[in-house]
Amino acid sequence: MRKIPREQIELLIELQVKETAATKIQLVLDALPVKIAEIASVLNTFEAAIEAQKEHLAELKKLYRSFDADVRTNQERIKKREEQLRSVTTNKEYQAILKEIDEIKKASSRIEDETLACLEKIDAAESEVKEKEKEYAIEAEDVARQTADLETKSREQRQSLDELLSERNSLAEKIESSLIKDYEFIKPKARGIAIVEVKECICSGCHMNIPPQMYNELHRGDELRACPHCHRMLYVIQ
Ligand SMILES: [Zn+2]
After folding, report:
1. Under 8 Å between Cβ of 53 and 59
2. How far is the CA of 172 from the centre of ligand 1 (A)?
3. How far, in Å, is the centroid of ligand 1 from the Cα of 103?
4. Distance 27 CA to ligand 1 centre (A)
5. Entry pTM
6. Nearest-10 Cα torsion for 196, 200, 206, 207
7. Cα–Cα distances in Å, from 8 out to 4, 67, 168, 176?
8. 1: which residues sit within 8 A by CB, 6+ positions away?
9. Angle between the N-to-C axes of helices 91-174 and 6-87, in degrees from 0 to 180, rounded to the nearest 10
10. By residue range, what is the domain housing residue 134?
């Protein structure tokens, strides 16, 4: 049993209130970087989809270039065969070259069809890239807005935290050092809450009953008692 002026106990209670509030804010602030990263991660999905679509588009363009080259090669071949036609001497040879020209033309026509189909696919892929980039821009704006909101709230909370800590320090200066020492000793073993209220004989720290006599004595409000179960400092509201 230790005689303590009631005013000192009141200060200690107030100190605990400030510290608890500060811890709550600190937890929110600590979780903030993860929250911001989570919000930004939505954009990764969009970036990956745009990247995949761009790769697909690049492949289509490559295919288009190869079709185009084939068409040119065939045009050259036809030109060459037509020149040959002028110098052939036999009908058989003439017919053979004509047949060859016809085959090249047929092949070329097939390639041209494929080229057209490829161009259509390129157009579709380009539209899709644009569409996805538009969606990305909207999402990015939303992410930026949410992040800015969180940063504003975080600044406000940092300010509240600073105020609480400074109030806490002013209180601590008014409390006897031996009392602060006891308080700090109990705190880490009591999940940060060193001084708790007793209501109807029950410790609000561990929710166990304290002896009725101790409860009665606490009502005098001039001594510091510890909970026999959780060892927290106890007080009753008078
Ligand atoms: Zn207790």
Report:
1. no
2. 23
3. 97
4. 25
5. 0.72
6. -150
7. 7, 90, 14, 8
8. 217, 223, 225
9. 170
10. 28-174
Q: How far is the CA of 224 from the centre of ligand 1 (A)?
A: 14
Q: What is the mean pLDDT of the chain?
A: 95
* 3-class state of residue 195 by DSSP: strand
- Measured in Å, residue 181 CA sits from the centre of ligand 1 at 19
**What distance lies between CA 43 and its chain's CA centroid?**
9
For position 45, which CATH number holds? 1.10.287.1490
C-alpha dihedral over 10, 11, 13, 16, to 10 degrees?
180
Locus of tokens 């001084």: 195
Q: Is residue 195, in this structure, part of any structural domain at all?
A: no
What the block records as the tokens of 7 is 């005013």
pLDDT in tens, 127-166: 999 999 999 999 999 999 999 999 999 999 999 999 999 9
CA of 79 to the centre of ligand 1 (A): 101
Question: Is 168 a member of any domain?
Answer: yes
Instruction: Report CA(206)–ligand 1 centroid distance (Å).
Output: 4
Number of domains the chain contains: 1
Confidence of residue 238 (pLDDT cuts 50, 70, 90): confident
Give the distance between the most distant pair of CA atoms in the chain: 133
Which band of pLDDT confidence, cut at 50, 70 and 90, is reported for residue 222?
confident
Distance CA 155, CA 177 (A): 33
pLDDT, residue 1, reads: 57
Q: CB–CB of 16/194 below 8 Å?
A: yes
